[in-house]
Amino acid sequence: MGYSYPPSANMTRSAIADFPMPITTAFSTEIKRVSILDEHGSFDESLGKGLIPDPDLLRLYEAMVTCRILDEIAFRLQRSGRMGTYPQNMGQEATSLGASYVLNKDDWMVTCYRENCGLFWRGVPMESILLHWMGDERGNAMPREHFTTPIAVPIGTQMLHATGLAWAAKYRGEKRIAATFFGDGASSEGDFHEACNFAANLEIPVVFVCQNNFWAISSPATVNCSAPTVAQRAIAYGMPTIQVDGNDLFAVVKVMRDATAWVREHGKPHFIEMVTYRLGDHTTADDARRYRDQLEVDKWKGRDPITRIFNYMKSRSLWDDAKEAALRERCEKAANDAVARAEGIVDPQKNEFFDSMYHELPADLVLQRDTRQTHSLGQSESASLTASSSH
Amino acid sequence: MANLNLVQAINLALIQEMEKDERVLLLGEDIGLNGGVFRVTDGLQARFGKSRVVDTPLAESGIIGTAIGLAMAGLRPIPEIQFEGFLGPAYDQITTHAARMRTRTRGAFTIPLTIRIPVGGGIHAPELHSDSPEAIYAHTPGLKVVMPSSPYDAKGLLISAIRDPDPVMFFEPKRIYRSFREEVPEDEYTLPLGKARTVCSGNELTIVSWGASVVQCMQAIEKSGRDIELVDLRTIYPFDIDAIEESVKKTGRCVIVHEAPLTCGFGAEISARIMERCFLHLEAPVQRVTGFDTIMPYYKLELDYLPDAHRISRAIDDCLAY
């Protein structure tokens, strides 16, 4: 593995406490940080060699470029009034993608709203995500075979769902595990702590993936976590935890592979903090220039996960400008096709939002739907009109 | 007088109360340097410092729970919950502690707390950014619930809420945050909680509404050409049943309009009270034009959900024709 496992200290606890006199260490630990391919092109052969076969790397690179292009298009769609508020993924492609690459297709992937790249990798259509942000619930109608839950907008709530989904797998004796994604801000919410505690104490096979992108809207990570790492929060719940350079696809894959293997073997949770950076605004409704330094953004642009793979492939003569140009053209077409499909969908019927409310719509709701009125006189008149016209 | 929109009016009210009373402090997500996601607290951290305008961790239960502690210690905290859709985690603290503290301590502790919450739909917002949960809190004894419909009202009602000795849910309709301006006195003034405003007088029919829906009601009234009285509740709890009674006894007909769903919406309570107080004066059954009993749809269909002038007009016509 390259580092001993589990990567954080032994978590076993004895019911019988010895208290040698006078002062001893009750507990100590450390947080490992993993980096394989850095922004200067240094590559650690001991951990990285054979980790991602070249054909896979090319596909992963294409996935990141496509996601980035779609992100840029979505931004322009919002600015031109063709899309609602949209949260850009820019700069964070490697985190969810690397994790998704490692997960089995029938593991649960439970995300919030900045994991497009990983979702696309497992087959979620790009137009589904676009539709969601175009104000259309039909974008959430994920086929169950994707083992993906709809985008979670409140913060941290989905971590508990992932724990429940993995619990169900354990209950049924399935091999499936769950991985859930959230940000540094979520580590402030009660649901974060409750999910970690449930998963650890009930021994649920779930991987908690924190995308620490340094900014929860305008709050720097320090507003939400005063400790040096978010990873160490997991220590308090007694689960293995590790930090990784989230803009390093190789390191993400390495850490995710080790963590999922450990979770599958032990049936217990594991925490990963992926350190990345939100290069864009929180959403298109936000203006990050109000609260953060452009120098910081520029520094992180130099650590872009896509550029890193591009340079790596070039250095290994896997890639050249002609291939890049052809790939960009392909990716742009894929993204534009997705936009065309999303925009091409016929608008939902005016009453469409009634249809999925219940398995069986209560009579009162049927009346509201069919009359499009809530005032009783309007309902009785329209209802009798409907009744007479049907004769 | 200054010509202000609703955001600016609230900002001004906050400034004036903070200048006047050192016990007043603001806390919430992104309210400091960023000025809040709607910029309602813009410039306040620069003006009053980080100890009085506090960027909190991203945790709504934490925001309200600590605000309760601040209030119990005698301060006047004004927490902001970023959108009404994120009240969920705070619901526990609001209903199990803020609302009950006075009575369960028989007045030994009070919670002079004003929770500011952007509310409602109509702005093309994402999921969970467009709901209207005011009735849930009106149904929670111990809370006051306010929803202004104009910049002038917002300033006067907010100052009253801040000075009120009990917890107040102060809902700010996003749809009219910047949709119009009006003259707002630069001096401080208060509008009493629990008092409605007669927006326009009429003899044929009474409309009762609050928040952003008041604008749709005005459109419907203008369109109707009829002699209609519009009562803006301003405060949803305690509510001005006397003003409603007086109006409905005069007109004999009433339409209630709100964005929240029909069933157990606050219109249901008003309708029941009208039945109790004005039974023999009624010429027609009380009508309600509201959101449907569905989840607030994403924005492609939000205007098909929200009560609009067309639906209100139909209710006016049906009620008048009865």
Q: Helices, strands, pairings?
A:
The complex is a heterodimer of chains A (391) and B (322).
Chain A: E1 33-34, H1 45-48, H2 54-79, H3 93-102, E2 108-110, H4 116-121, H5 126-133, H6 157-172, E3 178-183, H7 190-201, E4 206-212, E5 215-216, E6 219-220, H8 221-224, E7 241-245, H9 249-266, E8 270-275, H10 294-301, H11 305-315, H12 321-344, H13 352-355, H14 363-371, H15 376-389
Parallel strand pairs in A: 1-7, 2-3, 3-4, 4-8, 7-8
Antiparallel strand pairs in A: 5-6
Helix pairs in contact in A: 2-3, 2-12, 3-9, 5-12, 6-7, 14-15
Chain B: E1 2-4, H1 6-20, E2 24-28, H2 44-48, E3 53-55, H3 60-72, E4 76-80, H4 88-98, H5 101-104, E5 114-119, H6 134-138, E6 144-146, H7 151-163, E7 168-173, E8 182-184, E9 197-200, E10 205-209, H8 213-224, E11 228-232, E12 235-237, H9 241-251, E13 254-261, H10 266-278, E14 287-291, H11 302-305, H12 309-321
Parallel strand pairs in B: 2-3, 2-4, 5-7, 6-7, 10-11, 10-13, 13-14
Antiparallel strand pairs in B: 1-8, 6-12, 9-11
Helix pairs in contact in B: 1-7, 3-4, 8-12, 9-10
Summarize the structure.
By secondary structure, chain A is of the alpha/beta class.
Detailed description of the structure:
The complex is a heterodimer of chains A (391) and B (322). Chain A has 391 residues and is α/β, with parallel strands linked by helices. Chain A has two domains: 33-344, Rossmann fold (3-Layer(aba) Sandwich); 352-389, no CATH class. Chain A has 15 helices and eight strands. In chain A, strands 1-7-8-4-3-2 form a six-stranded parallel beta sheet, sandwiched between helices. Chain A has a two-stranded antiparallel sheet with strand order 5-6. The radius of gyration of chain A is 24 Å and the shape is globular. Chain A starts with 32 loop residues before the first strand and ends with a helix. Chain B is α/β, with parallel strands linked by helices. Chain B folds into two domains: 2-184, Thiamin diphosphate (ThDP)-binding fold, Pyr/PP domains (Rossmann fold), CATH 3.40.50; 197-321, Rossmann fold (3-Layer(aba) Sandwich), CATH 3.40.50.920. Chain B is built from twelve helices and 14 strands. In chain B, α9 (241-251) crosses α10 (266-278). Chains A and B meet through α13, α14 and α15 of A and α3, β14, α11 and α12 of B.
